[in-house]
Each structure stands twice: as C-alpha cells, then as structure tokens.
Write a structure and sequence with these properties.
The complex is a heterodimer of chains A (422) and B (323). Chain A has 16 helices and 14 strands. With 422 residues, chain A is α/β, with parallel strands linked by helices. Chain A has two domains: 187 residues, D-Maltodextrin-Binding Protein, domain 2 (3-Layer(aba) Sandwich), CATH 3.40.190; 139 residues, 3-Layer(aba) Sandwich (D-Maltodextrin-Binding Protein, domain 2). In chain A, the strands form four sheets. In chain A, strands 1, 2, 3, 4, 7 and 13 form a six-stranded mixed sheet that branches. A four-stranded mixed sheet of chain A has the order 9-10-8-11. Chain A is globular, with a radius of gyration of 23 Å. The two termini of chain A are 37 Å apart. Chain B has 323 residues and is mainly alpha-helical. In chain B, 75% of the residues lie in helices and 0% in strands. Chain B contains 17 helices and no strands. In chain B, α10 crosses α12. Classes of the chains: A alpha/beta (422), B mainly alpha (323). At the A-B interface, α1, α3 and α15 of A face α6, α15, α16 and α17 of B. Chain A: InterPro entries: Maltose/Cyclodextrin-bd (IPR006060), SBP (IPR006059). Chain A: One of its GO terms (biological process) is maltose transport. Chain A: This is Sugar ABC transporter substrate-binding protein. Chain A: One of its GO terms (cellular component) is ATP-binding cassette (ABC) transporter complex, substrate-binding subunit-containing. Chain A: Belongs to the bacterial solute-binding protein 1 family.
Chain lengths: 422, 323
C-alpha cells in the first residue's frame, strides 16, 4: 500500500516543484544568436534492442548535424514507463524537450493544452507518400501535430492446431464465418475469439475494431459528440455479446488486459485474435510452435478494418528553436531515416515509397494489413470516453444491461463530458 | 503511514527506557560539569540533531501535502495554466456519482478486509505463540508474502481465481461446483481481492501482535489459572485487554491501508466488473494521471485523508481509549 502513496505523491511532488521552479527559466535552448542552436529530442525505446537503438540514434545525430552545422541535436533516451507523468510534469514546468515522440492516443490532450506546434509545413511536401492512417492519426482539429516516422499494424492471427482439432480447413475471415465456426471450435473444447474487456485494456484493440468493421465511428465528425450508439455500434456489441453468451469468448475476458502471454489466446486455449501484432506472432511461435501460427487478413464485417498506429515527432510549442526542431522533423521523415528505423525496430515505415521487404509470409501479411489500418479516433477526451464505454460493455457482457441501453447510457455520459470540455 | 509502520514500539504505548527514567535534577548537573552539559541542554542543540530528518520530512512529506491543498483549489492543467476555483473541485466531487460509487466500494472493501486481516494475523500470532519448536521458521514463512510485491501477488492470485483453469475452480470442480467467476461477479470481486491483500499483508500485523503476546506477563496468566480460569477465559480477560494497545495500532494501520487500496484492483480487475472494484484511490489515479485533472485529483486525495482521519479518531475512542 505504501507504494500507492509513493506512486501518487511522487509525480505530484514533481509537478509542484516543477511549477515552482519554472520561473527560474531554462537557458538550454541557447538564445545566443552566434552560438549553435540546440534541439533536444525525447526518444522512447521504439527500437527494443539497446545496442541497435544506440547505434541508430548515434547515426541520426551524426548525419543530421553533418547536414545542419548550426544545430546541436541532443537525443535523450526515455522509458515508456510513466511517460505521460514525466512529460506532463516537464510541460507544466515549461521544461519540456523541443521534440518528443507521440502516438495518436496521447497527442490530443497535449494539443488541447497548447503544448504542441502544428507541423503541417513539415509534412506538406511528402503528403502523398504516407500510408492512409499515418497523417490522420496525428491530426487534431484539422492540423497535423506530429511527423510520422514509423507505423504499427495489427491483424487477425489463428492457432492452426485448434482449427485442425475443430475440423476447420479455412480460417474464418468474416463475422459470419466466425459465428459459423464457433460451435465447432467449442465442441473441440476451445474458445473461438480472444477479447479483453478489462477497463484497463484499450478499446482500440478490442471493441473499436469491431465498431469500425461494422462501419461505425466512435466520435461524430466534428468530435463534439459520440456516434458509437448508432446502428453499427449496436451491431458490433450484439455480435460480441452473442459470441460471449455462446461461450465463444473465454470467461476471463472481463479481467484480461492486452498481454498475449497472459491471455487464453497466448496459452493456446483460443482459436483466434483480431488485433495481433508482429511481436505477438513471435511470442506465440515459441509456445505453440511456429507451424501453428497463422497470420491472416484483417477481419471483415461490413468493412475490412485493422488497427494500426503511426508514431510521430511533435514540436514543443514553447521551444525557443521551433524552426530548427522542424528541420529535424523534415530530416527524420525521409526514406533513409524511416527505413533504418524500420529495420532496427521491426515496425513498418509510415511511407508507401519506403517499405522494408518482409522476411517471411507472416511478415508480408502484416505489411498487407497496413492499408486497412485505422489509427483510432483522435480526441482530447478519447481516454475518458473509453473508460465510460468499457464499464457499459462489461455491464452488457455480464447481462446487467441490454446492448442498446448500455450504449445509450455510455453515450449520454460521454456527451456530457464532451460538452463540458468544449 | 510508512513511518508509523516502521515504529511499532511507539504506537504500542509501551514506555521506553528514557521516558521511564526519572529526570536528573538540574542542580546536580550544574555542579558536576557545567559547560558541556549546559550547552547540550539548549533547545536548538536538540533541534540540530533532528534537523536532517525534519528537513527531509518537510521537503518530501509536508510540502507535497501543502502543494496538494493548493492544487485542489485550482483547475491546474497540463499546460501549467490555472485559475483559482475556490472549492469548486469539492462541490463537484460531492455531486459526482463516481465518487459516491468509489466511496461505497472502498467502505465495503474496508469492512471485509480489516476484520479478515486482523483475525488472520491474531489467529496466526496466537498459534505461533504456542509453538515452541520451529517458531522462527513459521514466522519467516508467514512473513514472506509481506515482502513480495503486491503486483506479483495479485498476478498469481488472478491465476488462482481464474474461471477456466484456476486452482480454486479446479478444486471446486472435483466436488462438481462452479466454475465460479471470482473476479467477474460483482458480489465476489471485493472479498476475492480482500483475501489476496490479506494474504499479502497479514504477516506484518502478525509480527506486531506476536510481540504484544510475548509482552503479556506470565504471572497474570498463572494467577488466573490458579483461580481456575479456562483457556478461553484467560484469553478473553487477560490476554486481549493486555493486547489492546497493540491491537489498536494494527487496526488503525490496516484500516488506513484498506482505504488506500489500489494496486491489487488495478492489476486484478482494472476496477471491474462494472466498477465493482473501483476504489477511491483508483478514482484519484484516473483523475490525475489518465485525465490530467490535477486539481480534482488533489481534492479526492484530501477528502480521502479527511475520511481516514475521522475513522482513525473514532477507532481511537472505541478501541484505544485507555491509552
């Protein structure tokens, strides 16, 4: 319990102290016109391998500084852990980095607080060369706030051993095929579809892909109200509920977080999952045997949709060297840099004209899924809305509410929230 | 809370050797060694000795609390911009349905967890007190969960409770019961989490109570035995009253711990199902670090502080009245 207190107290302390110290100012930006201008980048372990990461970023620093003699690039390695708390404290104390890596999930909240500078001018010349989800994922209120440097993707993955035991020769690729396969898989003693309904599990990997596949949207086009309680939302939730009631989704779904090793799917109890990543494929290959891992196309409802995110670099609006920071962004989105990052990290490049060739058929399936990727729906209140909705989804799965009722209840709360914040 | 846990002796109410010793008269001191002793007795000298701890306490305990009080009166946002909003956060909190729900969850959890832990630690302490051979071994074994990480314990208990292939359901299955969804039933989730936390934490209270039991004078018990008191009567009328200060300490510490429950819920259920295990600290965490509503989060923290303070004072009146 003590760690709880510490967990809460420490960032708050940091925040208060940072706020108090902010008046002391920070000269590291180097306002001196004669001297080199410095650009600080906060980079996270996108490249999992430490040595490869160091080598890649060292090369970026050397190459960029060679091309821009007047700029001193400083790359600070950060950890994913507590990244929001750290960044929030840094911005609150006006001590944030000039450039920082952002993903669509985080970006809108900072934009709402005025922390980032639009970078439309940086991406404009390369606009047509990005994957369909790359720029929309990093756009808030019509402006691009981060320049994409990598792209992730998820798609459907199957356990061949379970399909074999259930006597299913062709993996189910549509909602109807999933429903048809469920009884056979159940008869063989397994569940059909893995699902995480824990409130801590992001809906981007669970309910939202189903919603998008049904042709629905989370938010209305202007972002001022929610749209998930319309017909497609009901269709997606009814599909989910019918599978859950039929025993096609494991009972532990309600407490599952999105961690493949910990989920029934990873343990070989479930036939398929709809938002698996290349890393998941590697993980399960070790437990199921590589021959049993089948990577498929994104699942199709009314539409074929997968979830995939761009990662991009954003510029601190309070930076003293915004122009230099933007120069660095322009440098980073070039094919040479994104290809290098893709090779080192195993993620994909955000550009259509610079794709790393896939090493194997599974890798090729992931690469093919990129064009169906939806990056989530950026909204400053996206996380709160997710929390409100996931509680109501649990109410449906546990039989406390009917689907339409639950969606309407969540929509009412979400619309209240959105109206308060605009 | 950390400090209180580390100094059980002060809380047990037993007088230390220093306090028990009669104070030397100033006359005798002045006569024996005038200069050195006199300077040592100046008030600021004592302050000098406690200054390092005092400074650390002020910087890392007291100031953040003041910061939280100030934050709770503002609408502090990520950008660093803020407005003074007086008690708006508190009025909003009182009207917030989520707060009411989290409060009910926290109170229910406390009502299950505290008796469970106190009885469990008292029971094991009494048993250990009887054991002559291998007491150290058992003491170590029972204390072991306390020094493991709560996250680790929660993950393991999540597996134990698993509806599909959990240990408990496997056993229940043998007698054709279940499967029971311990973490997915609103009625079962809080007791299930309380059991996990009690298993994890009872070792500490057990040690305190064991020390308390060993401090009960044997002569009282022997006298009672001669008077013909049975085992239960000796426990009820001699041991328990003697144990009261220790019991009070354990009760307060465990209650405070229960009000601050978060980690186990975060790991095991994420607050579900349908917010059945969404505690006040969880609410605070979400407000602060998911929604960056720092003013509101601070207000929740201070209200929680007030609740814990009131509950502790009530406990003091009820249990610790002889201290």
């Amino acid at each position: 319990m003590n760690s709880t207190v510490r967990r809460i107290a420490a960032p708050l302390t940091a925040l208060v102290l940072a706020a108090a110290l902010s008046s002391c100012g920070d000269d590291s930006g180097g306002s001196d016109s004669g001297a080199k201008k410095s650009v600080t980048l906060w980079m996270y372990p996108v490249i999992g391998d430490q040595a490869a990461s160091t080598a890649y970023w060292k090369k970026v620093e050397t190459d960029f500084e060679a091309a821009n003699g007047d700029i001193d690039l400083k790359i600070e390695a950060q950890t994913w852990d507590k990244r929001d708390e750290k960044l929030a404290a840094a911005f609150a104390g006006k001590k944030g980095p000039d450039v920082v890596l952002q993903i669509p999930d985080q970006l809108p909240q900072y934009v709402r607080n005025g922390s980032f500078e639009p970078v439309d001018d940086v991406v404009e010349p390369e606009k047509d060369k990005f994957l369909p989800a790359a720029l929309p994922g990093l756009t808030v209120d019509g402006k691009v706030y981060a320049a994409p440097i990598y792209h992730t993707v998820t798609t459907t993955m199957y356990n061949q051993a379970i399909l074999d035991k259930a006597g299913i020769s062709k993996p189910p690729e549509t909602w109807d095929e999933v429903k048809a396969a469920a009884p056979k898989i159940k008869a063989a003693g397994f569940s059909t579809l893995d699902y995480s309904a824990s409130p801590e599990a992001t809906l981007n990997l669970n309910f939202y892909p189903l919603l998008w596949q049904a042709g629905g949207k989370v938010f209305s086009d202007d972002g001022k109200s929610v749209a998930f309680n319309q017909a497609p939302g009901l269709e997606a939730l009814t599909f989910l509920k019918s599978l859950y009631d039929a025993g096609a989704i494991p009972r532990s779904a309600l407490t599952n977080a999105n961690l493949v090793t910990d989920q029934p799917f990873g343990k070989g109890q479930v036939a398929m999952a709809i938002t698996s990543t290349p890393a998941d494929a590697k993980t399960v290959a070790a437990t199921w045997g590589a021959a049993n891992v089948v990577v498929g196309k994104p699942l199709t409802g009314a539409k074929q949709v997968s979830f995939g995110l761009p990662g991009g670099l954003a510029v601190n609006a309070a930076s003293e060297n915004v122009d230099e920071a933007k120069k660095f962004l322009s440098f980073m989105i070039q094919p040479a840099q994104v290809e290098g990052l893709s090779k080192a990290s195993g993620f994909f490049t955000p550009r259509t004209d610079a794709q790393t060739p896939a090493a194997d058929p599974a890798g090729q399936q992931f690469a093919d899924a990129l064009k169906y990727a939806v990056p989530g729906e950026p909204n400053a209140s996206a996380r709160q809305v997710m929390s409100l909705l996931s509680v109501e989804l649990q109410a449906v799965l546990t039989g406390k509410k009917a689907p339409q009722q639950a969606l309407d209840d969540a929509a009412k709360q979400a619309n209240d929230l959105l109206s308060r914040q605009r | 809370m950390t400090d209180a846990r580390q100094t059980p002796d002060t809380a047990t109410g037993r007088a230390g050797p220093v306090a028990g010793r009669p104070a030397p008269t100033s006359q005798s001191h002045r006569a024996s060694s005038p200069g050195r002793r006199r300077s040592l007795r100046r008030p600021w000298v004592g302050l000098l000795f406690v200054a390092p701890m005092l400074l650390l306490f002020l910087a890392f305990r007291f100031l953040p609390v003041v910061g939280a009080v100030l934050l709770s009166l503002t609408d502090y946002r990520l950008s660093g911009r803020w407005d003074f909003v007086a008690v708006d956060n508190y009025t909003r909190l009182l009207q917030d349905g989520l707060f009411h729900q989290a409060l009910v969850v926290t109170l229910t959890y406390t009502a299950v967890f505290v008796p469970l832990t106190v009885l469990l630690s008292l029971g094991t302490a009494v048993l250990l007190h009887q054991v002559v051979w291998g007491r150290g071994f058992f003491r170590g074994v029972f204390f072991l969960p306390y020094v493991t990480s709560i996250v680790l314990a929660a993950v393991i208990w999540k597996w134990i409770y698993d509806a599909q292939d959990g240990l408990i359901n496997a056993v229940l299955g043998l007698v054709s019961i279940g499967p029971v969804d311990f973490l997915a039933e609103s009625g079962l989730v809080l007791p299930s989490i309380a059991v996990t936390s009690a298993w994890k934490g009872f070792g500490y209270s057990m040690l305190i109570l064991l020390a308390g039991l060993q401090a009960v004078p044997r002569s009282y018990l022997e006298a009672a035995m001669i008077d013909g008191a049975g085992t239960w009567q000796r426990f009820r009328y001699i041991t328990l009253p003697q144990l009261r200060p220790v019991l009070f300490f354990v009760l307060v510490i465990e209650t405070i711990g229960a009000f601050q429950v978060f980690d186990a819920m975060y790991v095991m259920t994420g607050g579900g199902p349908v917010r059945s295990s969404y505690s006040l600290v969880y609410f605070l965490y979400d407000s602060g670090f998911k929604y960056f509503d720092f003013g509101y989060a601070s207000a929740i923290g201070l209200v929680l502080f007030a609740i814990v303070l009131v509950v502790s004072l009530v406990q003091r009146r009820l249990v610790g009245r002889d201290d």
